[in-house]
Amino acid sequence: MGVPTLRRRAERRGLRLWPVGRVLVLSFAAAILVAAAVFYTGWDLLGVRGLKPEHRIDSKTLFDLVKLSFGVVAGAGALVALVVAYRRQRVDEDGALREATRLHTERFTTAVSQLGDESAAVRLGGVHALAGLADDAPTQALRQTCIDVLCAYLRLPYTAESELPTDDAEARHAYLALREVRHTVIRLIRDHLRLAPEDPHSWQGHDFDLTEVTFDGGDLG
Question: Residue 179 in contact with residue 171, Cβ under 8 Å?
């Protein structure tokens, strides 16, 4: 799984919000339904049989009607403000997630390029960088991507020590360097799986594709 796949996932994970007009209409409808339910519940509990008709209203009743009107207007304004504030919060959170995903993608690209370096020391740095990225990933899907790359590294073609030429010191040094990188990947996977599930850096619950991986050391106990 490469960087293009990671970017496509990030692009598909956009913020989906209903139009403001539709949200306001639904919010007002829900508020009216709740108010009606409360009113009729109180009406039933009080055992009211009907309303007394009033052909004239006094100043107190008129003042109560004015207060009620202003209360309805204030409640509607508060509802609108609540909907707008909620949408603004969602947009801000989505913007923060997009920025974190962008930074993660940049670091991911650098770490993957280190894994392909000829120097074993640089590859070790890439392995630790990917493990750190998995720990800091803003989503579970991005963490899984880092884990997939580490597992894919272990699945790469690998020559066992018994198959090395006995008189080729350079090949043996290259083998020992590669084995150290592979053992580091195994150790990092083991250490993260040993963490408690509630630990934010635990990798429990993720997929580890170790199909046909050669294990000539390391400890996954």
Answer: no
Is 127 within 8 Å of 117 (Cβ atoms)?
no
0.90 cut: is pTM over it? Answer: no
Residue 99 neighbours by CB under 8 Å, 6+ apart: none
- Give CA–CA dist 50/125, Å, rounded: 81
Contact (Cβ atoms closer than 8 angstroms) between residue 6 and residue 133:
no
User: Which DSSP letter does residue 156 get?
Assistant: S
Give all strands (DSSP E) within the chain, no chain letters. Answer: none
State the 10-residue block means of pLDDT for the chain, 221 residues long.
44 54 69 72 64 68 72 76 77 76 84 88 93 89 92 86 75 85 93 93 93 80 73
215 neighbors 154 (Cβ within 8 angstroms)? no
DSSP state of 1: -
Q: How far apart are CA 96 and CA 159, in angstroms?
A: 45
Q: How many residues does the chain have?
A: 221
Task: Name the token pair of 190.
Answer: 């083991």
